[in-house]
Amino acid sequence: MALENDLGRDDIKKLVWRIAIPSMLAQFVSVLYSIVDRMYIGNIPDVGSVALAGAGVCGPVVTMVGSVAFWVGIGGSPLMSMKMGQGDMKTAKKILANSFLLLAVASVLLVALIYPFREPMLRYFGASDTTYPYANTYFSIYLTGTFFALMATGMNQFIISQGFAKTGMYSVIIGAVLNIVLDPVFIFALHMGVAGAAVATVLSQMASCAFVLSFLFGKKVPVKISFGGYDRKLIQRILLVGFTPFIIIAVDNVMIISMNSVLQTYGGPGEGDMLITCATIVQSFMLVITMPLGGITGGTQTILAFNYGAGQPDRVKKAQRFIFLLSAGYTTILFILAQTAGHIFVRLFTSDPALIAEAAKTIKIYTLAVIPLSIQYVIVDGFTGLGKVQLSLPLSFFRKLVYFLPLFLLPRFFGARATFYAEPISDIIAPVVSIFIYAVAMKRILKKPVIPNF
């Protein structure tokens, strides 16, 4: 059985490169799901700006639903990699089976719990009377594809964790390319507007899901999806390890929701909607930074987990050093682009000169500290990959706490636009603390490895 990558024996730098780059590209392409939707929505004749604000309100809620996929996927895949590193294929197979069950159950529960309350949720998250119809239309249709979205994203982690990084990338590209093709057909040719964008997204997720499941049920992977062997204790462990990335994504979206609410409160009905539209564009640019960055740090977790389980600490240290360099290099490039060419990105969403100027200025503010942010991602995802949630979770919460304080305080004294400075403040303070914790804890972790038994 030919593997794309031998996690335990291949040269570390080449291994990190071969896994990180496809994982990064996969996440970069997946950003197109939201960006292409928002780009086309923003250019709908007559109602584009209002419809884009509605999609912006809906975006964080959609991402919160998707965060459940990362909860299970990133919770189970490092554990499976550790067991593969130990040569315990029976337990690795059991972990995959339990993770598949978790995602299936979660997809049903999410729709049942969220659909009846979608109106108060969207209202609370910043939808005005003007933007609510668009947010409700998009979100209601999107929920019908919850099963496909969760399976495509969550199960893809188990493809990457077995060394098939390119295959994981292909699964995302299939959905993204289909979404790009279908969006103009449904939005403009069939005159479906916002509803068309949602339908295109659901169909694209179905295609990705079919690809992922067919691969994991096939003969190419060492560990295939199976049924049975369900274990409550193992499920708890998967949920515990995956809780850090889940809560990061969930709280990130609470941050966006809170920002929308603050902008609406301090900006007033007219300016508030304009600032939320601006924030939606800026958050789309941030996705271009953070999702590929998460692809680098999250995709390479499998290297850390496998070699940690195999008792090879030197390979873990070498891998983390190269992951640091790769992440810092990526964010440096994006920082330069944000400061010099942000207006070009904004023009994809709107032709309004005032909105272009406002959003381009905000992108410069929002991205002031993205290079330190890369350090935070590497440390937190590294601890998660090694199963050290007792370290990754507090570090994640600390960054959120640092964000929320200026988010609510700054606009009280300096107006609605000061809200945007909360991001760079948290992206400077949190990495400083994380570096200190990493320096103290990492030597001890690698000296005395603790691998959970199931």
Automatic annotation (TrEMBL):
NCBIfam families: matE (TIGR00797)
Subcellular compartments: Cell membrane
Keyword Zinc: no
Matches recorded under Pfam families: MatE
Protein name, per record: Multidrug export protein MepA
InterPro entries associated with the record: MATE_fam (IPR002528), MATE_MepA-like (IPR045070), MATE_MepA_subfamily (IPR051327), MdtK-like (IPR048279)
Organism: Enterocloster hominis
TM spans (from-to): 15-36, 48-74, 95-117, 137-155, 167-189, 195-217, 238-262, 322-345, 365-389, 401-422, 428-446
Membrane topology reported for the UniProt record: Multi-pass membrane protein
Keywords: Antibiotic resistance, Cell membrane, Membrane, Transmembrane, Transmembrane helix, Transport
Similarity annotation: Belongs to the multi antimicrobial extrusion (MATE) (TC 2.A.66.1) family. MepA subfamily.
